[in-house]
Amino acid sequence: MTDTAPPPPLSVAMSVYNGERFLAPAIESVLAQSFTSFEFLILDDGSTDASAAIIQRYSAKDSRIRPILRENRGLVASLNELLGESRAPLVARMDADDICLPDRFAKQIAFLDSHAGHGVVGCWSEDIDEFGEPWPDAGPDQPTDHEDLLARARQGRQMMIHPAVMYRREVVLGVGGYHSAFRHCEDYDLWLRLASTTRMANLPERLLRYRHYAGQVSTRHATEQAIGAAVAYEAWLARDAGRPDPTANLEKLPPVDALDALFDERGVSSRVRARVAASIQHSQTALRDEGFDILLRHIHDGGDRSGLWRTAARLVTFGEPARALRLANTLARAR
Q: How many structural domains is the chain composed of?
């Protein structure tokens, strides 16, 4: 039977992969919103834990939930599928490990209703750890207006919190949705592409409890995320200068050494290495994988060495004395 019901004003889009630990409170925080007229799409991306069973249990209790259960295809494919399945003109993102405060949707909808030129609105977060306690190093809050967001982008810093945003579906579809080449930083690339087509803002209110813990994507894939963000920034610079974006149709980014050829511009590879080197200096994961080699190459290329002696000391505390010695020797030779 064909569903003839009118579309709801809001679709909530959540992708889940092995998220059983925090999934129930995340779902309950959406169902407890003061704004109640929404469909809740929860896509299980081939989880091997109890996530699918949890989703099915909640969908049996609340008809607003539309479960999508399938094999694993990755987050970018899942986000684009959720975008395609959404029936509402507005889409609220939500992750399976965070918690919405009760008035989040109502306040973001009110903003978009009164700001027709804005396609995206986020909010500030209350950062918590895996036990729900305050996270000690949350960093500065995101800018609240479009111009300051662009200034933040030029600094290569975080513009919006992905699971805290609400956007107009057609605006995101209009720039091609999420690009698979930017795995683990697909949101940052999207904000940079949207910055040329619509206005964006963050509400100066903490309407999401954003969770930090060892198993999250930004921790496990720190180097890949840093490389992707640096390349997305270079693509934004190219578009801003009126040049073609060579990443637009890529399924996967090439190695860093091939970026000069991709962009047809000398210096892109070294700029990307510099941005990666600056962003991974506190990451145990990145300093133990290919990020360390990128850091050494950055030094060999004569890049900025500010703070890298402290990084060498940090490697000792990370239990990596051999890498600490290699970094110290490289720094000493570069003087």
A: 2
